[in-house]
Amino acid sequence: MTVSVLVPSSLTREAEDKREATRKLGYVARAATIFRVDRLLVYPDRDGETGRFDGGFVNTVLRYAATPPYLRNEVWGMRDELEYAGVLPPLRATTQTGSESNGSGSTRQGIVTEVGPDQRVRVNCGMQHPISLNVPPKMAVSEGERVTIRISSRRPVRAKLVDEPLPGLSVERTDLSAALGREDAGVCIASSRYGEELTVGRLETLAGRVESDGTTVAFGAPERGLPDILGIEVSSTDDGGGRVEPSDLGFDLWLNTVPNQGSKVVRTEEALFATLAPLSLRA
């Protein structure tokens, strides 16, 4: 089961300065981490970008936030987009905490600092010093590459390099249509105040589908929801509101996870928490 979240490149369009924009992105990354999102995907909304904090800024800050703290300096160095990286809330991702047990341990990211002879490399994976590891057969690594380490014990250090995808949250830039068309996209949901209201009965059915097939959930930007971004007309309803019906855009469902909202605007980072929390419930 794969969980993907789509956010627009215009995500920080209302931020007054870089510090506020960085903090907002930090809460987006934190919501994705709390609810075990596998992929955080940034899709283009160039008409909504203000020019100050475009898709490149959004992507860089989110990727930095998703990078384990012990690798950030080595991977990113000094970059203008990361001027206020200090305001990012810690993610404390469970895939990055290592293991104190003598069992199978946990996986974490490392970065290759030196490639030596006899299929051995030195890897920085958050220990006191880089550790020397054997490279598995048929696996090629290069200096500066990020790799997956399985740690079974810290004292003494017992670890091995494994040929597996990097653990933790992945951040990518992609077109919305491409993300919805992936084989593992699962149930594709558009989060919008103009969607069907999430009820207990609907959640009971939806939770089972999400648990078995996974899900991809798309969100809009501040003062620019998905209908605006996608150019979809909102039809009027009898109660004076609006409604968007599922279309051929690739969504299975338009869903309103904050029915009868008390604030005129629900911020994107708030919508992530409101939407991912019920969808993470087991059927």
Automatic annotation (TrEMBL):
InterPro entries: Alpha/beta_knot_MTases, NA-bd_OB-fold, Put_MeTrfase-C9orf114-like, tRNA_m1G_MTases_N
SUPFAM superfamilies: alpha/beta knot
Organism: Natrialba swarupiae
Protein name in the entry: Uncharacterized protein
One Pfam family, short name: Methyltrn_RNA_3
